[in-house]
Design goal:
Shape: rod-shaped
Radius of gyration: 31 Å
Number of helices: 2
Number of domains: 2
Order of helices and strands: EEEEEEEEEHEEHEEEEEEEEEEEE
Structural class: mainly beta
Largest sheet: 8 strands, antiparallel, barrel
Strand order of the largest sheet: 12-13-14-18-19-21-22-23
CATH architecture of the largest domain: Beta Barrel
Helix content: under 10%
Strand content: over 45%
Length: about 280
C-alpha cells in the first residue's frame, strides 16, 4: 500500500511557540513534508514538539547551535516519524521550543573529565612534572587533584643556616663538595569552574584554585658525602595553586602559579584533554 499523508487545515493554525526566542512562526505542507518557518532572536537550542512528544524525523534549523536570524526552517517528515501507512492530522498542535545554549548544556551536559600533563617552571631550579585530573558537572563547578615532583628524594641528614653553619651539639662549619640537590613535590586539591565560550560543550574557559601540601628542600653535599638542607631556601607546608584553563574541542591548556607557604613560587602549565 502506498503511503500517504492527509493534513487538515486545522494543522496550519495550530502551531505555537514555547519560548521567547522564536517568533513569527509559519507552517506549510510541501509534498509529504511539513515545513515550519520561524524567526530566532538569539542563538538557541531548538526542538519541535507535537504536544509533549519531541519529533525526531526533522532536519534544518533544529537541534543545538541554531544561530539567530529570520526565516529559519524545520522540515518534518511524519511518514518517517511513524511506521503507519498513513498520517492523518486532526487538531494537531505543534510547539517550537527554544532554549539558550547555556541553559541547555547546564541541564543536559554529562560529567566531563579533565586529564592534563603538568610542568612546574621555577625561576632558579630544574623543572618538575606531574598530572592533574578532575571533573566538571553540568557546565558549572567541579573538582581536581594534581601532583608534581622532580623525582629526587635524596634525604638531608643535617640542616645549615644562611652562613652555612650546621647546628649540632655545637655549631660547626662543614666543608662542601660543590654538589647541590633539590627535592620538590606538591599535591593539591581544589575547585574547578568551567564556562562556555560557544555552543560546543567542550569549548570552555575556566578557573581553578586549590590547597594542599608541598616541599622544596635545597641541599648541599659535604666533602664526607652528607647532604645538608639549606634552611633559608627550603620550605615545607601549605601549598596553594591557582590559574586558568581553556579548552578547544576538548584539547585543554592551563596556566597558573603554585606557592609553598607563600615563600616559594613557581609557574605551572599543562596540556591535555577534556572528554
Amino acid at each position: 500500500m502506498r503511503k500517504y499523508i492527509i493534513l487538515l487545515f486545522l494543522l496550519f493554525s495550530a502551531i505555537t511557540s514555547f519560548a521567547e526566542n522564536a517568533s513569527n512562526i509559519r507552517v506549510r505542507q510541501e509534498g509529504k513534508a511539513i515545513v515550519i518557518t520561524y524567526d530566532l532572536s538569539k542563538n538557541s537550542f531548538v526542538r519541535l514538539l507535537r504536544g509533549s512528544e519531541e519529533l525526531t524525523a526533522v532536519t534544518g534549523d533544529v537541534g543545538k547551535g541554531v544561530s539567530a536570524g529570520k526565516d529559519r526552517q524545520i522540515v518534518w517528515k511524519p511518514l518517517e516519524e511513524y511506521e503507519d501507512e498513513e498520517f492523518i492530522a486532526r487538531g494537531v498542535q505543534f510547539k517550537v521550543e527554544t532554549m539558550d545554549s547555556y541553559d541547555y548544556y547546564s541541564q543536559n551536559a554529562k560529567i566531563r573529565t579533565l586529564v592534563l600533563g603538568q610542568v612546574g617552571i621555577p625561576v632558579t631550579s630544574q623543572l618538575n612534572y606531574g598530572v592533574k585530573i578532575g571533573q566538571v558537572y553540568n557546565y558549572a563547578f567541579g573538582w581536581y587533584v594534581n601532583g608534581r615532583s622532580n623525582f629526587n628524594f635524596t634525604p638531608a641528614e643535617l640542616t645549615c643556616d644562611a652562613g652555612g653553619y650546621i647546628d649540632g651539639e655545637r655549631p660547626f662549619y662543614s666543608f662542601y663538595s660543590g654538589n647541590r640537590s633539590i627535592t620538590y613535590y606538591i599535591i593539591n586539591a581544589g575547585l574547578l569552574m568551567a564556562c562556555p565560550i560557544s555552543d560546543n560543550m567542550f569549548n570552555t574557559v575556566g578557573l581553578y584554585v586549590g590547597v594542599g601540601y608541598g616541599k622544596r628542600e635545597f641541599k648541599w653535599e659535604t666533602t664526607d658525602g652528607l647532604w645538608v638542607k639549606y634552611a633559608p631556601t627550603s620550605h615545607t607546608g601549605c601549598s596553594v595553586n591557582m590559574g586558568f584553563l581553556f579548552s578547544i574541542y576538548g584539547v585543554t591548556f592551563e596556566f597558573g602559579v603554585n606557592t609553598i607557604n607563600f615563600k616559594w613560587a613557581e609557574l605551572e602549565a599543562g596540556i591535555g584533554f577534556m572528554f
